Amino acid sequence: MSTKSDYERARGGKLKLKGNKTLFKADKTKRKKTVKNTEKQIDPDITAHGGWRRIKEESELTGGISIALECGNGSNCYLAALDNGRFTIGGPHLNGESPNPEEVGVLIIEF
């Protein structure tokens, strides 16, 4: 049977698990600084289009995402769908305004 001395020999404190923990304080501060620097970088293109961002790589085109096609002349006009199934160029938007619902399409990929 266990005695009180067995319990006294056990170490107290919180449970320590194995894992990818840094042992040195310098590494922890470097990691915190890099996280803070990445959070402060705001893309001006995202704020100009109301939270919508530009797709830079083909790998970002996955199924179930909403897309809006902007006209190339920089007038903040998007491609809009009409009720008869045709497309037209929508009206110009102010800086920071997102596209209208008829100017938003959904990408669906079938395998």
Automatic annotation (TrEMBL):
InterPro entries: FAM32A (IPR013865), FRG1 (IPR010414). It comes from the Eukaryota. GO terms for cellular component: catalytic step 2 spliceosome; nucleolus; striated muscle dense body. One of its GO terms (molecular function) is actin filament binding. Transmembrane segments: none annotated. This is Protein FRG1 homolog (inferred by orthology to a C. elegans protein). It comes from Anisakis simplex.
